[in-house]
What does this fold into?
Amino acid sequence: MSPSILVTGLGSVGSYGSGADSLRKALASSTVHTSEIDRSAGYHLPESSRRACLVAYRDLAAWVPALEARRMSPPSKLALAAARMALGCAGLEGAPAEESTAVIVATSFGPSSYSEGLLKQILFEGPESTSPSLFTESVANAPAAQIAIALRARGPSPTLCQREAGPLLAAGRGAAEIVAGRAPRALAGAVEEMTPLLHALLDRFGALARPEPDGGEAARPFDRCRSGFLAGEGATILILEEEGRARERAARPLARVLAWGSAFDPSAPATGWGTGHEGLARALRRTLSRAGLEPGAVDLIVSGASGSRAGDRLEALTLRAAWGAAPLPPVVAPKAVTGEYGGGVLGPAVLAASGARFGPTPGFREPDPELGLVAHDGSPYPAPSVVLATSLAVGGAAAWLVLGKP
Amino acid sequence: MSRRVVVTGMGAVSGFGWGVGPLWEGLRAGRTGIGSFRRFDHSLHRTHVAAEAGDPPPDLARRFPGWRRLSLADRFALFAAAEALEQAGLEPPFDEGDVTAGVCFGSSTGGMLEGERFFAAFFPRRGRRARLSALISHPVNAPGDAVARHLRATGPVQTLSSACASGALALGAALDAVRSGEVDVAVAGGSDSLCQLTYAGFNALRSVDEVPSRPFRSGRAGMSFGEGAAVLVLEPLERALARGATPRAELVGAGASCDAHHMTAPEPGGSGAAAALEAALRDAGLPPGAVDFVNAHATGTPLNDAAEWRALQRVFGERAGEIPLVATKALLGHLLGSSGAIEAVVTILCLQRGELHPAPRCEQGEGVDPELPVSLVLDRPLPCPEARVAVSTSLAFGGSNAALVFSRWGGPIA
It folds into this structure.
């Protein structure tokens, strides 16, 4: 009998603000906070996307004081802030770290601004001008390491880089570490930094939502006129604990981890999504079956759909193939609020399982007849007992997390 | 009861060439593969040696569709995966039939080498005349994904990027996936190519030796870089035997830990590295006394080797100075995200062949550091026909540690 795993804490930072409550409010009110990306470096094409869901870094000082933050890359600051928020949410703030606490962090692009700075030094100022501190914080696992150092967490600390699938893989890995008895507790989640350079490159690849006639840009998941995603940044960290230990310390859990799973669609090109929805649907059903569930038992789907034409299509076809002739439960697409960063599906999924409500999907105006899926319109729905979080990644990876009421 | 997991195939690309054959020949000869290199212009860098993979076999562009658009790290990975699968007697595609195959890969920099060339053109001209296709293989997950695409894998695919522990962590993840029954076949390993970013970065930290690295020697002054890939095919023992495959070794345990001490410096007492090693032995159900040799992380940096020695002392006690210690990086350089994977391959080769490859005697003539009195295998191969259990350790930036425990399958190969 595997131990039961609970989510006892959630920390989240994004354009919506800091803390789980900020995220909860943004999701309930369908409020999208975007800012103009700095295009002064000239990396962007004239007709490029201009907006992104950016973090107000000055607000992080309450969790990562300036003295501590001065040697950290932006993702390290974001991740450590989210980790401390999560510990506070779990009632563990200031508690001594369990010796073998695990830290699992997913990131797609790592500390992009530090990598960019480092490259410019090497390429244009000469290798001998390379800054050791920039290099140290340019590695993908810097955020996980900074969390571990700050919290004295000495368990496994892997960093996962599997694009959009990474955050759910990280959550599953965190649960697996506890189930295997390798860690009594795990901090698991995702972090991403959005820089002008990365924004410009994503735009050149055609990934971002296009500017609209009124000057706005919106993600529009599952909409007929979706044109790409809103680039986002932020961090989301969960505290995962074995149920017995959590109950012992009178923790107030947010959600129960019922199952996790992942798969790969080999038809996907390196820079896009594939067409293998039938295979992904089979893997999704296998994931649910690990919790003894059929698709019909899922009350709410927290989708990783982001407004991408091909990605949302694959997501919709996968869900429809998994459900067959049965109707889909409500499908929410929180990346329309958070922008595209890994935590954009993980945090909302935990909040959904804890009873949070979702407003209408921002940007969704007209169903896409090819998808046969209507994004949540804000109508009331029964409090979910089972929540399915999905995330299909560029390049072919896919991951799912099944959460239940605590 | 979890399933026993065996290695049924191995592939490698290294400074000794493309393939496991050249790898073993080079190691056994005890001649370092570290020397001058041409991968990029290093005239303005502080140091000038690395172990560069030579030219690939001529027919690879025909064997692998889209070969010319792939990064070097992708190419290393694909070649090593194909070699490993061939040895395992497995033929992709895996999306037909009832075999669920997954891929667990480690990488530190993915397609950074090609990214550097792109950005060298992109930055000065604000994107004009820079070919965006050069970035297709830039992400760190690109080598693992390229392998998964080539295999037409449908199972879990994940890339771990915990610096120098990535490859070993990937093997640990693959062990979990096979044990749990999540996959029938796991293709696991790592790939990294030389690139300026890491070369300049470690030089900025003054962690790179100007001559080929000299792990555990008195005058050691840092690491040397290498490049390449290694891939291992993992399967449940029962499945492997049922289909007539020959196990090369059994992967009996994996462990991981974090120093939680410093971004670049190891915990000097070696407690973090020891915790990973102890976790791996616990996972294997073996006492420290069962270990016959250690393939150490052995970078050659003064701090890392010292911390590793103390970790060995913590785990093996008085035996720490007696257990034969293999220092693969003295010959191949440090393959960063794939170092744990290629050292796993080397560990298995040593178990299979019943002998341990030597580290070369360095030109400076220094012996083993008396402060770190390990039993470093030096000069010539050390016969070990009775060796049955070996551990391989990986200690990374950010204090991420990983250890793997392998057990010999059958007797040594004559």
Notes: The CA atoms of residues 255 and 406 of chain A lie 4 Å apart. The first strand of chain A starts at residue 5 and ends at 14. Residues 74-89 of chain A form the longest helix (16 residues).
